Request: fold
Amino acid sequence: MGLSGESQAAYHYTTTRCEWEFYIIVTHTSGPTGRRVLSDKHKERRVGDSREMVELITSNPSALGSLVTCDESWIYCYDPETKRQSSQWKQFDFPQTQKGQAEPELFKSGRWHLHQDNAPVHSSILVTNYLTEMGVKAVPHPPYSPDLVPCNFWLFLKLKENLRGSRFEDIEEMKEAVTRVLDIFTLEDYEGACKKWLECYNKCTEVGGSYCKGN
Reply:
């Protein structure tokens, strides 16, 4: 993934509760974030892609279950708690991490669509040619649209909220903690995120492609 330096590593996690894949980049430092000033062309693209996704999802009740979404995020080896969190007593009963889980049947069937943003690691010619060669069907995603990515508006927020205040001595310890947190999410949690995803597309269309407050 073009990473360098001893403090960085690529970590791949797959959950069998829902057919989603998550790619998480763990590192000591934070990557660039933030929204862009959208041009009229960008807003038009956001509206068009949002409408296409709404049509795909609403026209087929099982469409959401066939979408595989992925993204990357940055995780600190130490991220201090907020004042609110430090005043709360917390204890998590993490389930034992299961290793060697079987590949979900959805992936074997080929009846799924890939959703990812337009980061260079996703949109390079090498990647697009490989996806075409493998017959992977991709759904549209407009540029500069982190508010339309479930990992951004739900998963990473929840993940980092649970990890905040923890210290990790090395990458392996961090990976184990990330996996434990991801394992506590329920099917209802994922279904709620999918519902929110559809709401985000509808909001984007309603406001003419501008960023939606709260997304």
